[in-house]
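Next up, a chain.

===
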Amino acid sequence: MIPQDFIHQLLDRVDIVEVVDRYVPLKKKGANYMACCPFHGEKTPSFTVSPTKQFYHCFGCGAHGTAISFLMEHAGMGFVEAVKELADRTGMTVPDDGQRKPEDGRRDRLLAVMEQAAQHYKGLLKDSAKAVDYLKGRGLDGRTAAAFGLGYAADEWQGLVAAVADYQDGALEEAGLVIVNEGKRYDRFRDRVMFPIRNERGRVIAFGGRVIGQGEPKYLNSPETPLFHKGRELYGLYENRRGIQQAGRAVVVEGYMDVVMLAQHGVDNALATLGTAVTPDHVAKLFKLVDDVVFAFDGDNAGRKAAWRALENSLPQLPDGKRATFLFLPQGEDPDSYVRQAGREAFEKLCDEARPLSDFLFDELSVRAEPDSPEGKVRLVKLVEPYLAQLAKAPLLARSLRQRLAALSGLGGMETRRRPPGHGAPRPPARPRAALPSPARVVLQAILHKPERLANLPELASGGDEDTTQLAAVLAVLREHPELADVNRLESFYQGRPEETMVRAAAVALLQWSEDYDSEADLRGAWATLIEQSARRQAHAFAGRKLSDISAEDRANYMAALKEKKLDRLSAVKPDR
């Protein structure tokens, strides 16, 4: 419900290079900026950001859009959240269209009290010798503690009284900071080291508290709130996003201290689940960030059970081209203790040698099936097949694993029928030739490159093929609304309409033209082709018809086209008798 005019003004003000660079390190190349695409795996950069056109495009996977769509697709924000994020950066206020619901402000209120609590806990940490000694004893230094915003909740029943204006405020209870029991209010977190949990924007949405000394539970997390759903969030995502992008790999661990200590030792691409097993939402979010995910678990039985749960939840979310691997640490070690003892290089070597999902799957199920007998081989097939059926997003991987299953079980013919004798391998399909841009698209592209050219072009008849008809419609709109002669505005205007494909293709192709590129010749050639095609279509349509049956307007248009193109071919129109 945000007015379209406001969206246009926002996109005019925002710097998409700054927005994207926050998540994906960009390098300047000519007039644009380049990077490896964050939406698919690649080694050669094909992801381009245009500061003049204010949009991005990947020539590999086709990802394309504005700063708003980037935050939605890459950072996982909703539309309104992305607009508000950009508005905050540019100092703009999102207008109220009169349909704002009362609960819309509730989230802002909850975020405010969470930030107040985070600052309060952070301030107390400096003055708590007990908490500082505990963290130092774990090997943590002050710089890392500050980077992750660590704090301390005092051993008091109502310690937050000093942090907020009104301890009776219902937002404290709704945010999970305060518990109300039989009319009495008291802090949820007491005498604990506090780990703030941030969303992608860096806003505190929950806390994890680690008890100092003896006490249960050892780790206490915020409850489910309107801000926090533990099955969707990952600790360290905000702090380590840049490290994850640079490494091209995310390492999923089990604890907050694992993430913090790994970062302190140079492994700044780790994330932790929040007191829960790896969920499908976690996996989906991870594969939006990177192509390679390592699940790191302790080597004990509990760690192996947790790893198997992660495998089960990964299968439906795993696309072809992505990779999930499983790392089991030496007995008695966790990532925190291992990296402190062995160092960054040793830990990263373990990650490099982690077991692929397919190996983990087959090894575990082979132990259960005992495929040393015909019965065991059949049992193996029965065990594995339901898991392979879940690879809906990875048909190529599923096919490869079925071939592996056929080889292990000895039950061939599971994939394809055997070819008749004498038939060799099928010929690979011929590589399709790159399609040339249509004249209509080239004309539109040249107009978007330099909108002032439109004033010198005559009206274009809408009759003819689909491209010409769509171009005529777009040019008519641009004549009436010249303010739309901007890539982002025109794409927004035609979103969901038949002309969207042509407009988007022209916008993408603009990335290959610099501002000083002389596209006049392209425009003239494409326009002449359109006129010639129009004249030929009209000549074909008039063939066999009497001149009196053709309207004066059609005759005039046809003769004008003939004159402009200087066609020598005689008309097939029959004269009146």
Notes: Residues 415-425, 430-434, 564-577 have pLDDT under 50 and may be disordered.
